[in-house]
Amino acid sequence: MGTASFLKRARALLRVRNQLARECLAELLAVFVLILITLSGSAQMVTSSGTKGNILTAYLAGALAVMVAVYTAGGVSGAHLNPAFSLAMCLLEQFPWWKFPVFVAVQTWGAFISAGAVYALYYDAIQHYSNGTLVASGPRETASIFATYPADYLSLSNGFLDQVMGTALLIVGILAILDTRNKGVPKGLEPVAVALLVFSIEVSMGSNCGCPMNPARDFGPRLFTYVAGWGAEVFRWVEGRGRGG
């Protein structure tokens, strides 16, 4: 009885009653889960030189990560997970503009700290694979574990078009899945449908830039690599450098 009473009091004290705070915590946790699984799939592929994963397993990890993240926060914040989606909701007047910068900051911060968690998880593997040298280009680069880089052939204009089209397709697909006027997805399976949408975009439009489709997913981890030792090269577009994926 004493233990039950203590736990009840503890839950009451820890309960977050402010709605905005609840939404922000939900977004933070969901983005953390999203990026943790996504980057871990990439880390496993890169640090094993493809022996314990390939581009398809990395894409699958990213798609399933979206599913888990939407289930994590969907009932509290709507599981935006992505500044581009938050912006689309604002433009459609389904999300207040004043919340937009708050959600973007939370999403980016969640991606940043998740990148740190992946770095800690795969620290030994990254050090072994890179011979202790953290670089963003070359045969032993490891920056692409955390952020996406253009394929060797890609120009800046083509890269911009690639990201606009991929992100637009993602937003249109999500809106179609959620539109009650369309042929409905069975209730509770919407995150699965969104995961399949993400996977379809990745396997069809991923070769140019690696298909981030999410500014927070790319910028947060990229910022982490900058402060963690990869240097300013992670923010430079150099045509003919890098790899798709």
From TrEMBL:
InterPro entries for this protein: Aquaporin-like, Aquaporin_3, MIP, MIP/Aquaporin, MIP_CS
Entry's localization field: Cell membrane
Keyword Cell membrane: yes
Keywords of this entry: Cell membrane, Glycoprotein, Membrane, Repeat, Transmembrane, Transmembrane helix, Transport
GO MF, one example: urea transmembrane transporter activity
Range of residues in the leader sequence: none
Keyword Transmembrane helix: yes
GO cellular component term, pick one: basolateral plasma membrane
Pfam family of the protein (one): MIP
Catalytic activity: glycerol(in) = glycerol(out); H2O(in) = H2O(out); urea(in) = urea(out)
Membrane topology: Multi-pass membrane protein
Transmembrane segments: 20-39, 59-81, 102-122, 160-178
Domain of life: Eukaryota
Chain's role: Aquaglyceroporins form homotetrameric transmembrane channels, with each monomer independently mediating glycerol and water transport across the plasma membrane along their osmotic gradient. Could also be permeable to urea. Also participates in cell permeability to H2O2 and H2O2-mediated signaling. In skin, transports glycerol to the epidermis and stratum corneum, where it maintains hydration, elasticity, and supports lipid biosynthesis for barrier repair. In kidney, contributes to the reabsorption of water, helping the body maintain proper fluid balance.
Assembly mode: Homotetramer; each monomer provides an independent glycerol/water pore. Could also exist in other oligomeric states.
Record PANTHER family: AQUAPORIN OR AQUAGLYCEROPORIN RELATED (PTHR43829), AQUAPORIN-10 (PTHR43829:SF13)
Similarity annotation: Belongs to the MIP/aquaporin (TC 1.A.8) family.
Name of this chain's protein: Aquaporin-3
Native organism: Sagittarius serpentarius (Secretary bird)
UniProt lineage: Eukaryota, Metazoa, Chordata, Craniata, Vertebrata
